[in-house]
Write a structure and sequence with these properties.
The protein starts with 6 loop residues before the first strand and ends with a strand. The radius of gyration is 23 Å and the shape is flat. About 15% of the residues lie in helices and about 40% in strands. By secondary structure, the chain is α+β, with helices and mostly antiparallel strands. It has helices at about 190-205, 225-240, 255-260, 280-290, 290-295, and strands spanning about 5-10, 15-25, 25-35, 40-50, 55-60, 65, 70-75, 80-90, 95-105, 115-120, 120-125, 140, 145, 150-155, 155-165, 170-180, 185, 220-225, 270-275, 305-310, 320-325. This is PKD domain-containing protein.
């Protein structure tokens, strides 16, 4: 059997900026962080540092406002908005002000999307990947019944999934998928061994250029249940729908969309996949000797999710996924 593995280090970065303003009693500094794509709907976290006995009033430039040292705001529509942060003293009088433009780019036409994570006997379905320029998220249905973000029971056979939403102009948006559920095998022992071998390589300072240990040691990656769910959704998706790619042939989801559907929204994500290898040692050795995969294993991540799935009768039988993340 031909064995192969590919990588796609998907990194979702944080765009950070700050705007200082000086006043007689100290420095007033405003910073913000957001998805580096800047696409609407864009959620931005604003943070201010300032002297004691003061507070900050925020005007987001789209008619909304808030107060406090750290606030989060979502811009649902594209455009350039002027963020105004006003420093107030203990008597509520303005003593300083900082302004900065917030550019929000178009995410493209509004659409409803579905992201599917298979697990043994169940499935998680979420609207990650949808683009809506209004606050109300899509509703998700499985076989005609609305489902939430948690697992839904799934028996073998075909099932109908549907996302429904209303666009900002009142238009109806839908995305439909047919799920083909079937049994597959998992192995907690294999997942644990892949984790051990991965962290051993980090502890030994594996060098991705020289393909040998001896470099600076890296801290171990901590397993995370949401990343395990995302990894299992990818391994099971490849086994059930006959593809071998970081982009799902079922729903078009990316590694980040799968992580978000599993319940985590980290700053960056990367994914390693492999198919055909029969043991944890074989698959980890292959990843360490492949430059791109190795960079993920030895990357600046703190969390990991793992999944081995076997489904006899499919092109590769054995499917492996690692998902890396940094909060």
């Amino acid at each position: 059997m031909t064995r192969r593995s590919f990588l796609l280090p998907l990194l979702l970065g944080l765009l950070a900026a700050s705007a200082p303003a000086a006043h007689a009693q100290g420095t007033f500094r405003v910073g913000y962080s957001a998805d580096s794509t800047r696409q609407a709907p864009l959620t931005v976290t604003f943070t201010a540092t300032f002297p004691a006995a003061h507070t900050v009033r925020w005007a987001f430039g789209d008619g909304a406002a808030a107060q406090g040292p750290q606030v989060t705001h979502t811009y649902y529509r594209p455009g350039t908005f002027t963020l105004t942060a006003t420093l107030l003293n203990a008597q509520g009088r303005e003593v300083s002000r900082a302004e900065t433009p917030i550019e929000v780019r178009s995410g493209g036409p509004e659409r409803a999307e579905l992201t599917v994570l298979h697990a043994p006997g169940s499935v998680r379905i979420g609207p990650a990947g949808s683009v809506l320029y209004r606050p109300e998220p899509p509703r998700v249905f499985l076989d005609g019944r609305e489902v939430g973000p948690g697992p839904a029971p799934l028996t073998p056979g075909p099932h109908a999934a549907l996302a429904q939403a209303t666009g900002s102009a009142g238009q109806r948006l839908e995305r439909r998928l047919t799920l083909n559920a079937a049994p597959f095998q998992t192995s907690a022992a294999f997942d644990s061994e892949v984790l051990r071998l991965t962290n051993r390589a980090r502890a030994q300072g594996w060098n991705c250029a020289t393909l040998r240990a001896g470099g600076p040691a890296l801290p171990p990656l901590a397993p995370h249940p949401a990343l395990d769910l995302a990894a299992q959704g990818q391994s099971a998706g490849m086994a059930l729908y006959g593809y071998f790619d970081h982009t799902s042939a079922l729903d078009g989801s990316s590694p980040m969309r799968r992580v978000q559907t599993a319940g985590l929204n980290p700053a960056s994500v990367a994914e390693n996949i492999a198919a055909g290898q029969t043991t944890p040692a074989e698959v980890v050795d292959g990843w360490l000797r492949s430059p791109g995969h190795c960079r993920n294993v030895m990357g600046n991540f703190t969390l990991i999710g793992l999944s081995y799935v076997a489904r006899p009768g499919t092109p590769y039988t054995h499917y492996w996924t690692q998902v890396f993340a940094r909060p």
